[in-house]
Amino acid sequence: MANPSPILRQLGCFRSLMKPQSLQHAQISRRSITTAYTPKSQPLDFPSKMPKTFLSQIPTHLQPHSRKKLKVYPPPASATTTCKDAVGAVNQSQLETLDPTGERKALFDYRRNPRSVKVGDIVRVTFKNGDPFAGVCLSIRLRGHDTSFLLRNQLSRVGVEMWVKALSPNVESVEIVQRTAHRKRRARLYYMRQPRHDMGTVENIVTNYLRQKQGLRGIKGRGGRGQRR
Amino acid sequence: MPPRILGNLPQLPCLPKGSLFTIIRANVPTRSFGIRSLNPPKASRFNVGADLPVLKSTPTAALERKSRTLPLRTGTIVIKKGMTGLFDPETGKRVPCTVLQLDRVEVVSHKTRQIHGYNAVQLGSGWKHPSNMTKSLLGHFSASGVSPKRHVYEFRVKDEAGLLPVGQMINADWFQTGQYVDARSHAKGKGFAGVMKRHGFGGQDRSHGVSLKHRSMGSSGPGQGGGSRVYPGKKMAGNMGNQQNTVQNLKILKVDSENGIIVVQGAVSGPKGCQVRIQDAIKKPWPEVAPAELPAETPAEPTA
């Protein structure tokens, strides 16, 4: 580190004056603090008749013909919006075909119809194929087209129960043989299965009813006190 | 042209200009695209001839084997809505049935023998908002001219005669009352289930010294004589359900094309609201379909 002479150091400020004029100008212009707007340079056009192989190597967003906007088609009308409850629709159509008048449904609608079958009644059912069955109605299940009821009887001292579908096409007629003496305070009379409460056979009541009906039919030609539907 | 041109420098000026240019260009390597095998397949010197039998491991032979069990026409996508009971009009018996509903089922595209190796109809059902869909899938639907679909499934068909035109909507009357279908869907997931539930194992004794092992499997295999290992495929505890299950030969009891409802006899796997694919049963004679429904000249002929 050689120290320059003190005289030379003082003269050092004139060094810039000794530089060529052109260089000085360039420096000033470079240090200018004004900023001029320069538009963003546009990408140059691709040469016409460019081979396809070259074109495919260019990124898609830089390709001359950008991709077309996709056309999205509207959805068609849906059956699931017009028919939201498909199972209900099937059930409803069943109900309409099996019970067009709504008579059979009303016969078991014990909540709304006061003249309907009620638990404790003795009911006789005849079938299209098979023997008729009579018994005490123990319970009624209201399930629309699946409505069913449970009958209990004793055949040769053996308790017999039978669930009958109220709207089944096999059920020809349902008639009330004898109404219960007073309203039962249970919806399901399963206690009647106990020996203490068992009603026993209803054979006698039904034969009496049938004989009476036969006699009435002989005189009047019309049905007895039971409702035949 | 002379190959040793560079060695003959004194001759250079008298060469025509064009020939020099071509030499230089020939040395520039041309760019090639794609993957090229170093050992391209060569034509076999053997087994060449017209009356040779079709090899068993070829796609042609595979299609020939499947031709008896591939349906002639496509099936459809349906939603399982629930179960109910119907009274059979003939016997008067009540039969359990499943209610299925179609939701905007349209043909999206085809798979063809020439391009994909097999014939199939790609169907879509439902609707999905375009903003929730990838652009590639959106382009697929856009090219077919159908709305964006939520569910897309393929249905294999025997030949080109079963390929419905793209964009055609399939309604419930595609199936007839009384015909049989196969229904495939995902069964309800049961989670991680033990061997008693999953495979019906008997479990172990309640007592007689059994402790904490009442529902577990017994031995998982033989000892030294059997190799002292657990054989592959041993039934053990694991994930149960949530797998595709096919229920075959379901009779169609009712068709309501207005509401898009199809009612089949019996149960279909899966929870309510799941997607079910139904197609003509492969173990029954093909249904008699009017030739107008099939776009081909050859009507559907029943085969066993």
UniProtKB/TrEMBL annotation, chain A:
InterPro entries linked to this entry: Ribosomal_bL19 (IPR001857), Ribosomal_bL19_sf (IPR038657), Translation_prot_SH3-like_sf (IPR008991)
Claim: Transmembrane helix is one of the keywords in the record: no
Keywords: Ribonucleoprotein, Ribosomal protein
GO cellular component, one term: mitochondrial large ribosomal subunit
A single GO BP: translation
Superkingdom of source: Eukaryota
Gene Ontology molecular functions: structural constituent of ribosome
Family from the record: Belongs to the bacterial ribosomal protein bL19 family.
Name of the protein this chain belongs to: Mitochondrial ribosomal protein
Record organism: Aspergillus campestris (strain IBT 28561)
TrEMBL record, chain B:
A GO cellular component entry from the record: mitochondrial large ribosomal subunit
Classification via InterPro entries: Ribosomal_uL3 (IPR000597), Ribosomal_uL3_bac/org-type (IPR019927), Transl_B-barrel_sf (IPR009000)
Pfam family of the protein (one): Ribosomal_L3
Source domain of life: Eukaryota
Alphabetized GO MF terms: structural constituent of ribosome
UniProt key word Ribonucleoprotein: yes
Record-level GO BP terms: translation
Region feature (Disordered): 203-234
Keyword annotations from UniProtKB, A to Z: Ribonucleoprotein, Ribosomal protein
PANTHER family: 50S RIBOSOMAL PROTEIN L3, LARGE RIBOSOMAL SUBUNIT PROTEIN UL3M
Family membership noted in the UniProt record: Belongs to the universal ribosomal protein uL3 family.
HAMAP family for the chain: Ribosomal_uL3_B
Protein name: Large ribosomal subunit protein uL3m
Organism field: Aspergillus campestris (strain IBT 28561)
